[in-house]
């Protein structure tokens, strides 16, 4: 069995890296943020992780108090095969979101074989959401990323994202390519429509509002001075 990395430093950051810094560990945490998952489900959302590596990560995360076995999904008693975040693990929520937003600034075009899962679609919207742009606003979007469909409900600064269509969505957005440039403000909503990058049904003016609500910042972040 591979021994998890030990940095030998009495430092909170070093300890955090020992807990979740091993390959695939943070992605396991990411995929558990939306709720418990079985080992088989984690294999489906992380198709390139070897089975023995996933088992090792789950053991290490459980030992560190980040995850724990959960009761089965859909009423099935499969305790020990289904995992969930502990309260300690759930505290990684904001960290994962902020880290993901930082990484999203460097995304280019997806490589052949890159996976874009339902969980990634949902968490990406939570990651990019600008609460300050949503006060006093009520709007519902249905977004199609190929065969993956989610809906996002914005209600006075609060965001709820879930799987599936929304029959009364104010705007249906169909992504016909990589829409990261639209999130990053590299192209406008009008340019995305004109170029065929997206197709919409409903009030097309709400696409511009969508790009104000879900944003990948491109400006450099000024570092905090200790």
From TrEMBL:
Gene3D superfamilies, A to Z: SCP2 sterol-binding domain (3.30.1050.10), Winged helix-like DNA-binding domain superfamily/Winged helix DNA-binding domain (1.10.10.10)
- According to the UniProt entry, the coiled-coil residues are none
| Family annotation (InterPro entries) | HTH_HxlR, SCP2_sterol-bd_dom_sf, WH-like_DNA-bd_sf, WH_DNA-bd_sf
Keyword annotations: DNA-binding, Transcription, Transcription regulation
Q: Does the keyword DNA-binding apply?
A: yes
Source taxon at top rank: Bacteria
Domain HTH hxlR-type: residue ranges: 11-111
Respond yes or no to whether keyword Nucleotide-binding is given for this record. Answer: no
Classification via SUPFAM superfamilies: SCP-like (SSF55718), Winged helix' DNA-binding domain (SSF46785)
Q: Supply the Pfam families for this chain.
A: HxlR
Annotated PANTHER family = TRANSCRIPTIONAL REGULATOR, MARR FAMILY, TRANSCRIPTIONAL REGULATORY PROTEIN
Record-given protein name: Transcriptional regulator
